[in-house]
Design a protein that fits this description.
β17 and β18 form a beta hairpin. The model has no long low-confidence stretch (mean pLDDT 92). This protein is α+β, with helices and mostly antiparallel strands. It contains eleven helices and 18 strands. The protein is 23% helix and 27% strand. It starts with a strand and ends with a helix. It folds into two domains: 56 residues, no CATH class; 251 residues, Alpha-Beta Complex (Fumarylacetoacetate hydrolase, domain 2).
């Protein structure tokens, strides 16, 4: 049976379907320690109705994935996103990049757009939180996946496209502070829930306008195969998180084959000038004042990872100088 856990400055709380929360009696300071103390979560969840349950509105929710930790993300892992990006979904390789754990922020925190960034994009993603070590060379199967994945979390892989594209630099463009909102819930899961991941629906809206809406069934490389590929070169530890890619619907889209062909004939500087001038006219990029809501759920299976609500603001002059 799945259990939803949230984190505040006061500690860990189990959360019911009606959203009320109750303190988890644990000394766990990190996500890894909390996952190792599942018994404490069960004790809190089994408390009698009305005993110690609170309205969460008086609390500020923090990321349920504590830092420092490894944050690894998959590139182009949904068929719809591959098509949007101009790739053939049947030939897209399984590839990864790292994000700085300093980019992790809470599900209600502001997304801060750096002063030099204009093309700020959203990418709702399903995060897999490790509950056991994943050593190098591990071969993960659908049967053994529950041995390694202990929880699920909503993530948004915020991306500075005008840094990412000309530099072909994923790490910098996706690692600025506040660029990885996580939560609100850490959904502790078992074999039954992991077997029905395909039914989870990812939805991202900006100011109420739905931009991304797809299920995990659109995923190209599934979690077991992704972890096997990752373990070829990267060990993972309890509390680390793998972001499993985003569906189509981001602000960035492929310019089309003809435009790419023409661009390939131009000097690099001129090509990027034209590209960014065109992108600057795209109203889908995030702007200060926008509010991004990202949620993942599977109503028919009763799984609900919750919805994060993250407003966007511009960096202050002091932050820009930091």
């Amino acid at each position: 049976m799945s259990r939803a856990v949230v984190r505040t400055a006061e500690g860990w709380w189990v959360q019911r379907a009606d959203h009320r929360i109750r303190r988890v009696p644990t000394d766990a300071a990190t996500t890894a320690e909390l996952l190792a103390d599942r018994a404490a979560v069960e004790r809190a969840a089994d408390a009698a109705d009305g005993e110690g349950w609170e309205d969460p509105s008086g609390h500020t929710l923090l990321s349920p994935v504590t830092t420092p930790c490894r944050v690894v993300a998959q590139m182009v892992n949904y068929r719809s996103h591959a098509v949007d990006s101009g790739f053939d979904p049947d030939t897209v390789p399984t590839a990864f990049f790292r994000k700085a754990s300093g980019s992790v922020t809470g599900p209600e925190a502001e997304i801060v757009r750096p002063a030099h960034v204009r093309l700020l994009d959203h990418e709702v993603e399903l995060g897999l939180v490790l509950g056991a070590p994943l050593p190098l060379g591990t071969d993960v199967t659908t049967a053994t996946l529950p041995r390694y994945v202990a929880a699920l979390v909503v993530a948004n892989d915020i991306s500075a496209r005008d840094v990412q594209l000309p530099k072909t630099q994923f790490y910098e463009s996706k690692s600025y502070p506040t660029f990885t909102p996580l939560g609100p819930r850490l959904l502790l899961v078992g074999p039954e829930e992991l077997a029905s991941l395909e039914r989870l629906r990812l939805v991202c809206a900006v100011n109420g306008d739905v931009r991304q809406d797809s299920t995990v069934a659109d995923m190209i490389t599934r979690p077991d195969a992704a972890l096997t590929a990752l373990a070829r070169f990267q060990a993972m530890a309890p509390g680390d998180v793998l972001l499993t890619g985003t569906p189509g619907g981001t602000a960035l889209r492929s310019p089309g084959r003809l435009a790419e062909l023409v661009g390939s004939l131009l000097p690099a500087r001129r090509k990027w000038e034209i590209f960014f001038a065109r992108q600057a006219r795209n109203p889908a990029y995030l702007k200060p004042g926008d509010v991004v809501t990202s949620g993942i759920s599977s109503r028919d299976d009763g799984l609900d990872l919750g919805t994060q609500r993250t407003p966007v603001r511009a960096a202050t002059p002091q932050e820009a100088q930091a």
